[in-house]
Amino acid sequence: MLLGPAISRSQTNDGEIRLTVPSSNLEAAASSNCSAERSPFRVETGNGGKGPIEIALPAPDRWLSDLEGSSEPESSAEVESLDAILADVERLQGQGCFGDARVRDFLLQSLPMRPGESFFNAYGYRVGHRGMDLKPGIRLKIERAYFRAGEGGEEQYDETRFLGLSTLFVDVESDGGTQIRFRQSGDIRYSPPSLAEQPQARTGDSLLSTFVPKREYRLFFYSYEVPQKRKRSAVIMGARNASELDEVDRQLRTMPERSCQDVAASGVTCVEFDGFVTLGAEVRVEVNGKVTFLEWGAKVKDVLPKNAGVKVLAALRIQRQFMNDYYEVQFDPRDSTVLSLGLVGGDRLTWLKKSSVVPTR
Prior knowledge:
By secondary structure, this protein is α+β, with helices and mostly antiparallel strands. The chain has helices spanning 26-29, 46-49, 60-68, 77-94, 103-110, 118-123, 242-254, 260-263, 310-315; strands spanning 17-21, 35-38, 41-45, 53-57, 131-133, 138-147, 162-174, 180-191, 216-221, 232-239, 269-274, 277-287, 290-295, 317-322, 325-328, 348-350.
């Protein structure tokens, strides 16, 4: 089980989790009306509205059994309650509650999860839920295939008409404050290089780095439900808060035939990636002091030497960010469960001696 640093080491598996959220502006947080409850979740200011922000989460056993006992995690009662209370918290903060505290992030990062499902804590991603929040430490990889036009001027996705591929990397970064922005990493790569001269290669993929910074950005994955004629691969959407993205996310899932622009509210950025294109994500991690990008979904076992034994696990050190600070991931080196820990952006892994570590640049 993966438990956040805010959870006491003495926490029992069958007991309710009680947390206190750090805030540098408790005066704005102090109000008896600043409370939300969607059983078994609760967020409130303590001491009759004059104390710190307190959060109640379900017991680890109850929360995990609910997730794992449903064939569709999205439809479980407690996941629905979680989504509802997150929306309530955002609404209350919009009304001046809870000060500058990052209640949503604190709550998500504190939820107990299995090691292989830490993507939920970091990005709100879970099986059956096609959206993932874009946070610093993520790199987007856009691969697009090009084909010669067939009869009627339309591209025919046939190997006999294949012209080549383009690849573009875009880093997700913080603007130094609370906003998310995109920065293109290097030039677009064409294979073969002559493809760059083709009219078809002049797409708008590179415009991603010109998007206006927003507080929330999300990558939405399409599936087989999308009508073939639409040829959509993914959507990137941005908004002032996560609740606005949740609504667009919901409508795209229930009405896959609609375009993102049709369902997005005013002020929501919505860009679809059409054509023969794959939009994937990579995570930025440090391995023995060297920065590298790993495919989304990579686990600890994917970066360790093959057939890593007890000696490697005994020397393994993993650091992970919780809110703004780094913490050691505590694990028993005799238990191989740590090998299934899903890696997220910013993770640091070390198992070599200091003299063998390559300095980070």
